[in-house]
Each structure stands twice: as structure tokens, then as C-alpha cells.
Amino acid sequence: MSIQSNNNSRNGAGSTVGQNNDIYNIVLLIVDIVILVFKFWLTIIEETVKLFTTRPQANVSGQFVLITGAGHGMGKEMALQYAGIGAKVICWDINDQTNSQTVKEIKQAGGTAYGYVCNVVKREDIMELASRIRKEHGFVSVVVNNAGIMPCHPLLEHTEQETRLMYDINVLAHYWIIQAFLPDMIERNEGSIVALSSCAGLFGLANLVPYCGTKFAVRGYMAALAEELRQKNPQTNIKLTTIYPYMIDTGLCKNPRYRFPNAMKLISPKDAAASIIEAQRQGLEEAAIPRHFVAVEKLGRLIPRKAMRLVNDFLDTGVDTDKM
Ligand SMILES: NC(=O)c1ccc[n+]([C@@H]2O[C@H](COP(=O)([O-])OP(=O)(O)OC[C@H]3O[C@@H](n4cnc5c(N)ncnc54)[C@H](O)[C@@H]3O)[C@@H](O)[C@H]2O)c1
Ligand SMILES: *[C@@H]1O[C@H](CO)[C@@H](O)[C@H](O)[C@H]1NC(C)=O
Q1: Which helix (H) or strand (E) holds 114?
Q2: Which one in 32, 74, 250, 263 has a CA-CA gap of 20 to 30 Å to 16?
Q3: Separation CA 167–CA 217 (nearest Å)
């Protein structure tokens, strides 16, 4: 609703027209506020109800799903599981051998997969590969920005090269890949982009200063992109999903530490992959693994930091340096 103020007076009765306009504008403002309050609470109720119901999952059978870092860990498990539900999986990894192994395993299980060696740091390679894939296969419906690295030690021990590489892989590569595949999604008004952030994108953790920076960055750019797409097209069907895994047993996290290993044990890459795929198919904007971590973070922010630190110290959970 747009409010136009027109206080020009050409007919000599300027003050009355102005007054009428003022009243009119106030009425419009009140109507806007009433609509806002009504929709606001309605949406809160709707979204709360949705938390307790199982959402329908999109059918990805026959569609192309691109996964970066498909040679190992969660990327590999996602590739296998997406293929298992009928998706045609495009596997990208810097490591030819492990990537080909993933493709081989998918084919052996009767699925469809295509492997490409790709160093996601190289923007030109990404653009070239993307146009090749567009020509050879067509529309890619799901893009999973998964490849990532996690050097883990105090900030003063991080080298420049390592730090830059971390931002190149964990953040900048996501931009290049989105720039390559989003235009088709916008044109068709469909598709889904998944980004791997981390619990290190929700909480600040010792030994992970640059890594936390990259994962907070993922969370930030995904929120901004969602806003940009929504402003461009309020009816957008493009789904953005940000994933915040806690510690997953892939070997990426070398020295996890916890006081209560039974309550906070490492999650298997299989379970993590299943959880990511479910979140993508349900079109969730945010999903932690385990799921309740997003709520924990929201609650944690309401509580003064000093008080939260007491809880952290009690749980004594984190990661120790990898230079031991
Ligand atoms: N494992 C965890 O505990 C954990 C927790 C939270 C978030 N994450 C995030 O999840 C994602 C996957 O983690 P993972 O544990 O499965 O990792 P992983 O180390 O098991 O596998 C990562 C894969 O990415 C590939 N890769 C690395 N650099 C690349 C590059 N430049 N170009 C292309 N491919 C490259 C590797 O070859 C490897 O196959 C990462 O973004 C990670 O930060 C992991
Ligand atoms: C999913 O899509 C595939 C391919 O379009 C179709 O064959 C299949 O019947 C669909 N499955 C469901 C449950 O709708």
C-alpha cells in the first residue's frame, strides 16, 4: 500500500484539502498497522504449528543435484543418498580419485552420477564447467556448496596462505558457484541452494577464529541473498537452506573435546547427510544438526554472554589445536 501525499492547493481551499489528506494518510497508516499486526501473529502461529508437523518433501527424482566436495565425508554421503532417491548427481571435487570413487559407487548401486574435477577456488574453471554442464545436462535444480577446509589452531599460528585459502574455499567459492547457477534458477523461478555453514557459524570457538569467520560469513550471505531474491520477486520459489552441523565424524574435525561424550557424541556422516537432504527437500531456511541447535543459539543470545560462558565452561566442549 502506498501513501501519496498531495498538498498542492490550486483551488484556493488549500488548507481543507491538506487537512483531508492528513486524515486520509492517518487512516491509511492505521489500516497498514492493523494489517501488519494481524499478519505478524498469523505468521507466527502458522510457523509454530509447522514446527510440530512434518513438512512435505520435494521430489528430486530425475533432477540434477550438484555437490561440491563429493569425494569425502558429508559430500560423498549426500551424493550417494541423493542418487538413492533417484536424483542425477553431479560430483565436484579437487580430488579426482576420491570423486571417481563416489561416482563409481553410485553407478554400482544403479544410480546416475557424473564426476568432474574442480578446484572451487578457481572462478574461471567454475564458469566454464557450469556452461558445459548446462549444455550437456540442462538445468541443475539443487546446488550444494559443501566443500570446505578447517585448519584448527590459535589465530597467531595461522599463516596468511592458509587463512586466504580458507576464505577462498569456504566463502568465495560459494559466490562463484551461485553466480554460475542462480541465473537459470531465477529464469525458471525454481531451484534450491544449500550452503554448509557450521555450529562455528553460530558460536565463536577457540582455535577456529578464521574458520568461524568463514562460517558466520556463509550464514550472513545466505540471509542477504534470501532478502535480495524476495525483494526481486515476492513470489520466489527458489529455496535457500543454510546448514549448521555440530561435530560430524568425517575426520575434518581432528581433536574434538567434550566432557560428556555420551550426550554429545560425533554424528555419522550418513546421518548428517540424511538430515541435510531432508532440510533441503522440506525447503527449510535454516537447519542445525542436531536440529535443536538453532533454537539453543537463539535462546543463548537472549542470555547475557557472561552467564552463557558459565554453561560453556561446565560443558567443556570444543576443539583442540591440530598442531599437537
Ligand atoms: N565435519 C564436521 O564436523 C563439520 C561440522 C560443521 C560443518 N562442516 C562443514 O561441512 C562441509 C563438509 O565437511 P566434511 O567434514 O564432510 O569435509 P571432508 O573433509 O570430509 O570433505 C571435504 C571434501 O571437499 C573437498 N575439497 C577440499 N577443497 C576443495 C577445493 N578447493 N575444491 C573442491 N573440492 C575441495 C575435499 O577433497 C573433500 O573431498 C565443510 O564445509 C565443513 O566446513 C563440517
Ligand atoms: C517424482 O518425479 C519422478 C520424475 O518426474 C516421477 O516419475 C515420480 O512419479 C515422482 N514421484 C512422486 C512420489 O511424485
Answers
A1: strand 112-117
A2: 32
A3: 9
Mutate to test the pocket of ligand 1, among 66, 74, 208 (most ligand atoms within 8 A of CB): 74
Q: Which helix (H) or strand (E) holds 309?
A: helix 305-315
Which of 60, 61, 63 to probe ligand 2 with, by most ligand atoms within 8 A of CB?
61
Angle at 131 between CA 126 and CA 135, to 5 degrees: 145
**Closest of 296, 209, 281 to residue 246, by C-alpha:** 296
Asked if residue 140 lies in contact with residue 181, where contact means CB atoms within 8 angstroms, the answer is yes
Angle between helices 160-167 and 209-232 (to 10 degrees): 20
Residue identifier of the C-alpha nearest atom 19 of ligand 1: 252
Mean pLDDT by 10 residues, the chain (324 residues): 44 64 93 96 94 93 98 98 98 98 98 98 98 97 98 97 98 98 98 97 95 98 98 96 95 85 85 98 96 88 92 89 85
Contact between residue 289 and residue 248 where contact means Cβ atoms under 8 Å apart:
yes
Ligand 1 center from residue 250 Cα (angstroms)? 9
Where do the DSSP E strands lie in 139-197? 140-145, 192-196
Q: Give the active site residue among 24, 114, 175, 211.
A: 211
Give the pLDDT confidence of 279-309 residue by residue, as tens digits. Answer: 999 999 999 999 888 888 889 899 999 999 9
Cα–chain-centroid distance for residue 176?
15
User: Does ligand 1 have an atom closer than 6 angstroms to the CB of 121?
Assistant: yes
The radius of gyration of the chain from alpha carbons, rounded to an integer in Å, stands at 24
CA distances from 207 to 100, 167, 217, 265 (A): 33, 16, 17, 20
pLDDT digit string, tens, across residues 119-175? 999 999 999 999 999 999 999 999 999 999 999 999 999 999 999 999 999 999 999
Tell me, yes or no, if 211 is annotated catalytic: yes
115 lines ligand 1 (CB under 6 A): no
CB neighbours of residue 195 within 10 Å: 24
Distance separating alpha carbons of residues 176 and 39, to the nearest angstrom: 37
